[in-house]
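Researcher: Structure for this, please.
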Amino acid sequence: MKIKAIVENTSGKRGIKTKHGLSLLVEGERFGQILFDTGPDSRLLFSNAEKLGLDLRQIETVVLSHGHIDHGGALHDFLKQNKQATVFLRREALAEHITKMAGISIPVSVLLTERDVPRLIFTQKVHKLAPDAFLLSEIEPVTDRTANRALYQRIQNDFVSDSFVHEQSLLICRQDKVVLIAGCAHCGIENIIEAAQQLIGREIDVVVSGFHLYNPVTHRGEKREVIERFGQRLSQFSCRYVTFHCTGKRAYNLLKRQLGDRISYLAAGQSIII
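Model: Predicted structure, token format:
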């Protein structure tokens, strides 16, 4: 299995441009190609893909990890250029989402049109994509991440704290290895790992995910003690970690001190083979 970062906050290859967001191409023998998120900007998505030798018009499966613009802002334009892809997402991902800073509301929703709807498949708690690929959602969220507290969802006429019920993760179960892929892991990657392991009755071998330890609006990360406590929790699992995007480089460097070779960073233009 191969995972290539098309869009990410940082560049790992000459000529690849960056923006706060995420898009991964996941390739496997049994499920083919899955575009996991589209990033915030379609021109960036297609430009980087072309430089990486990828033809996104041939993609048949798209997974939207959650309903925030940095992960799905390019989705509408992607569907205009790609005439065949089916998008798997949580129904709640289409709800209105905002973040707040100094009392000011900033929209972060994924915007689609009626024309896009026939190509959407709304997923349940566990959704089978392929014989060895599943989508997992409805995870109890963590409560100690300050970056989550600035995020809100509309319910009827009010904005309330985001429950992240719109978030889902991709679980790939091969005979030799289990891989968990998440976007921001707003619910807490530790909670997602536990739910996945309970579901399949096996330990996760590799986790590929952002950890949402950085707020891109305030440009502030979690406190050192929160990050170190999080690193201690990650060390209790046996898996290897590949991270990016909303983890933030400061948090990554702190986690690297704790986890050593068990954690690495994936930048735009880079690939990993698992």
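Researcher: Any notable elements?
Model: The mean pLDDT is 95. The chain has one domain: 2-273.
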